[in-house]
Design goal:
Layout lengths: L8 E5 H15 L3 E5 L1 H5 L3 H10 L4 E4 L2 H9 L6 E3 L8 H6 L3 E4 L2 H14 L3 E7 L13 H9 L4 E8 L9 H20 L6 E3 L3 H6 L7 E4 L1 H4 L13 E13 L17 E6 L16 E4 L2 E4 L9 E4 L10 E8 L2 E3 L1 H8 L5 H5 L6 E5 L2 E5 L5
Parallel strand pairs: 1-17, 2-3, 2-9, 3-4, 4-5, 5-6, 6-7, 7-8
Antiparallel strand pairs: 1-10, 10-11, 10-15, 11-14, 12-13, 15-16, 17-18
């Protein structure tokens, strides 16, 4: 935590990120990879993470927003970038000018991209989105042939890819996953019969990279596996992010003391209460109040009371802890470890939500081969 701007930091281990990329490569071989760096690279920091992934030879970047894609372009990356969520047709010229790829589900967007491509004398690159069962973006399988025909009739549009998005992993729901996969294969077969070919066909995500090798097709989309936020069968993935703070205040309170707001936590015995300078404004989920643990001196201690905007209290019991001692909220200390997956399971949420919540006021410290560099808000 050298050079940290706060005593609370998110430590990003880029060596572990590189390790995870290589673990994925063991499964994908020569199949291309879209590295998902949306949402500030799942909270890990868009710029340092994308540079590392590019150095590791990923083929494509995946983002949700036009702004994220433009940020990547401003770093100098020449890699293709796929915008996977909605884009406003009014942004078509920016998309074409920055040589960005769009997930396409609407003719209005297609027509706007065609007009922008003709105006700028360039090609607008799109990936056709097929809704095989997630029911978010995309056209239903039976609507795809006519949609592709209409898009193909427009000038300046290059249909580089076609893809779908799985709703579940194989291990969670094999029947539904296989239904979606087979539905997608059916669409690909129909498109081929009609004379359409797409260089990049994709449906595989992090879990199916390991669980369903036949889903790899031309390119796979990987996010969770790169960041090591959850164990996956058949992979030696390492966690990339740790969240750390330090004890900023300690005091002894008598038995029966109420801790924090709403009197939701009461000490059974006389106890030492520590304060750490991190709260829900930093992205520590308030739902962890009276549920979460931290590590101090390699031991678990419970979060005591309601998590506040800026601070959280810890019940140390009779442990005599000093101001300045390290607290691990996510990560390993001694033989104990608190993982992102543990917190996600405790809160019944996605493992991606936990790091993505960590706000910009928590500096990211990037560790690689014994070196570290700190990034504050606006530099990540």
């Amino acid at each position: 935590m050298n050079n940290a701007r706060r005593e609370t930091v998110a430590e990003i281990n880029l060596d572990n990120l590189r390790h995870n990329v290589r673990e994925v490569r063991k499964k994908t071989g020569k199949t291309k990879i879209i590295a998902e760096v949306k949402a500030n690279a799942y909270g890990h920091g868009l710029l340092p993470v994308s540079r590392t992934l590019e150095d590791e030879g990923v083929d494509y970047f995946g983002v949700a927003l036009l702004e994220e894609a433009v940020s990547l372009r401003k770093t100098g990356t020449k890699k293709p970038v796929l915008i996977q969520a909605c884009v406003n047709p009014s942004a078509a010229e920016d998309i074409v000018m920055h040589n960005l790829t769009v997930s396409l589900s609407e003719m209005e967007t297609a027509r706007a991209l065609s007009a922008a491509a003709k105006k700028l004398n360039r090609k607008a690159v799109v990936h056709i989105k097929v809704d095989t069962g997630l029911h978010r973006f995309g056209r239903l399988p039976e609507d795809i042939p006519d949609f592709v025909r209409q898009v193909n009739s427009l000038e300046g549009i290059y249909m580089e890819g076609i893809y779908s998005h799985l709703a579940s992993s194989v291990l969670s729901n094999r029947e539904y996953t296989m239904m979606q996969f087979n539905s997608f294969l059916g669409v690909l077969g129909e498109m081929e019969r009609r004379g359409y070919s797409f260089p990049l066909r994709h449906i595989a995500c992090s879990s199916t990279v390991f669980e369903l090798p036949e889903s790899h097709l031309d390119i796979v989309r990987v996010g969770t596996a790169f960041y090591g936020t959850r164990d996956m069968e058949g992979a030696d993935l390492k966690p990339v992010l740790s969240l750390k703070s330090r004890v900023c205040f300690v005091k002894k309170v008598p038995a029966g003391s109420f801790i924090s707001y709403r009197m939701a936590y009461r000490t059974e015995k006389e106890a030492n209460i520590a304060v750490m300078n991190i709260g829900y404004a930093d992205g520590l989920p308030r739902a962890l109040s009276n549920k979460g643990d931290v590590l101090i001196r390699g031991k678990r201690f419970p979060m005591a009371g309601i998590i506040a905007m800026d601070n959280t209290m810890i019940d140390l019991g009779r442990e005599d802890v000093s101001v300045g001692e390290e607290i691990v909220i996510i990560g390993k200390q001694g033989k104990e470890q608190i993982t992102i997956a543990e917190l996600a399971d405790k809160l019944d949420t996605s493992s991606g939500e936990i790091p993505a919540r960590i706000s910009g006021r928590v500096p990211r410290v990037y560790v690689e081969q014994g070196k570290d560099k700190s990034f504050g808000q606006g530099e990540q």
